[in-house]
């Protein structure tokens, strides 16, 4: 078998240009397949990370569903009722409002969240303090996100121990009314970066539910409810119970359900892109077929001589399949390497910075952190696909060569 492969190798060397062009076709197809698959996997990981700010065992209930019916009202009694559902360990209501934060004569837009701050790390497991403390439910103080404390174009805008002014405006009977409230900052959160895109914690100000309720005049009604279950395994069962309680008056979703949807979408995208890349490999297979068939026609006398001196039909088939195998193996290996480079190059171009493939803009609120993912299984599968497709393309030319009549072949001019 090794001798036949060596003969196949020498046959390719004798036709360097044709062999090189055929291998390049395989390289291009393999590189496309590798690059697109790795970028699809990277996109999937990126999106899953974005929506993993919440714990896998956390469900969010938002009043005002898309279906018919009045929006549900969430109160302390509602939260207590939800906490009685089997599998629920925490039912935490929250108030949320976009407003203006002022400090030292400057202002920034933020989202005020009224919630029991001692439970934040249970709801957001990746949340960390940069300085200060989280604060308690009974304190009228503020915990600010990193980009509220340190906006991209402003250093140390708000620090621990500083007093900030919250301003919210409304229109009543044609008049614009501005309500304001001063709060002492007793904590600053660590930078969440891209992990906080789904729930932009970096641009939030947290205070107690009592403070938010009195300032915004909610009358004991909440804008939503975080429900924490015992573990991720009971999320679906608890979600079904919540749907029974709220009916069509609320939207109920969890990070798990969002992640499943994302994976379904990225899986479809991956299949679509993979199909496109596979077409280029099919084109390469046609090129292999054409090259080997032409080789059979050019080497008719050589094939006739081999058969005349006793080469069995199977050996002739193996000789030409060996050429196809070498084209697939070499093209697949080089294509995988080229696909890795192409994926990183494309990521660099998409980021607007071709010299860096890391976090391209750490100062922005949503840094671009998509990275291609190369798994050994994926690389091997793409390589194997290239080799198999090359072998399939070489089957007919090999059979054609083996079927030649040696007498007729030797008469060929």
Question: What can you tell me about this protein's structure?
Answer:
The chain is α+β, with helices and mostly antiparallel strands. It has 2 domains: 2-52 and 269-411, no CATH class; 73-246, no CATH class. It contains 12 helices and 10 strands. The chain has helices at 2-14, 16-50, 76-82, 120-123, 146-149, 209-216, 235-246, 255-298, 300-308, 313-351, 376-402, 406-411; strands at 58-63, 88-103, 106-114, 129-132, 141-144, 163-172, 175-189, 204-207, 224-229, 250-254. The chain has a 6-stranded mixed barrel. Helix 2 crosses helix 10. The longest helix is centred in the last third of the chain and has 44 residues, at 255-298. It is elongated. The chain starts with a helix and ends with a helix. The model is unreliable at 353-368 (pLDDT under 50).
User: What number of structural domains do the residues give?
Assistant: 2
User: Total strand count, please?
Assistant: 10
Largest sheet: 6 strands, mixed, barrel
| Secondary-structure element string | HHEHEEHEEHEEEHEHEHHHHH
Oligomer: single chain
Runs in which pLDDT lies below 50 for 5 or more consecutive residues are 353-368
Strand order, sheet with most strands: 2-3-8-5-7-6
Radius of gyration: 32 Å
Beta content comes to 15-25%
Assign the structural class, choosing from mainly alpha, mainly beta, alpha/beta, alpha+beta, or little secondary structure. Answer: alpha+beta
Number of H- or I-type helical stretches:
12
Average pLDDT rating: 82
> Distance N terminus to C terminus?
30 Å
């Amino acid at each position: 078998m090794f001798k036949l492969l060596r003969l196949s190798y020498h046959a390719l060397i004798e036709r360097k240009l044709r062999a090189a062009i055929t291998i390049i076709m395989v390289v291009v197809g393999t590189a496309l397949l590798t690059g697109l698959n790795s970028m699809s996997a990277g996109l999937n990981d990126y999106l899953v990370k974005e929506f993993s700010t919440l714990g896998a065992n956390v469900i969010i209930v938002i009043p005002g569903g898309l279906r018919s019916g009045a929006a549900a009202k969430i109160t302390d009694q509602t939260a207590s009722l939800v906490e009685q559902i089997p599998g629920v360990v925490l039912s935490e209501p929250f108030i949320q409002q976009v407003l203006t934060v002022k400090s030292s004569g400057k202002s920034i837009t933020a989202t005020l969240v009224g919630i029991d701050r001692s439970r934040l790390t249970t709801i957001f497991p990746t949340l960390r303090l940069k300085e200060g403390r989280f604060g308690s439910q009974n304190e009228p103080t503020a915990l600010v996100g990193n980009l509220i404390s340190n906006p991209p174009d402003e250093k140390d805008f708000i620090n621990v121990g500083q007093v900030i002014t919250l301003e919210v405006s409304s229109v009543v009977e044609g008049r614009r009314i501005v309500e304001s409230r001063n709060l002492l900052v007793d904590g600053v959160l660590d930078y969440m970066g891209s992990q906080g895109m789904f729930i932009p914690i970096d641009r939030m100000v947290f205070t107690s539910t009592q403070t938010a309720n009195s300032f915004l005049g909610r009358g004991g009604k909440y804008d939503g409810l975080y429900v924490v279950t015992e573990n991720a395994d009971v999320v679906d069962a608890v979600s079904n119970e919540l749907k029974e309680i709220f009916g069509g008056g609320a939207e109920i979703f969890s990070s798990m359900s969002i992640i499943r949807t994302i994976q379904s979408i990225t899986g479809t995208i991956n299949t679509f892109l993979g199909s496109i890349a596979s077409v280029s490999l099919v084109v390469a297979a046609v090129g292999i077929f054409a090259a080997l068939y032409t080789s059979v026609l050019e080497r008719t006398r050589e094939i006739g001589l081999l058969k005349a001196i006793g080469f069995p039909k199977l050996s002739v088939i193996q000789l030409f399949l060996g050429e196809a195998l070498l084209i697939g193996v070499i093209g697949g290996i080089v294509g995988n390497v080229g696909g890795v480079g192409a994926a990183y190059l494309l990521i660099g171009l998409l980021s607007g910075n071709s010299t860096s493939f890391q976090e391209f803009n750490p100062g922005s609120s949503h840094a671009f952190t998509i990275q291609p993912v190369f798994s050994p299984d994926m690389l091997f599968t793409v390589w194997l696909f290239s080799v198999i497709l090359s072998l399939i393309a070489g089957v007919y030319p090999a059979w054609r060569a083996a079927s030649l009549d040696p007498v007729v072949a030797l008469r060929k001019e």
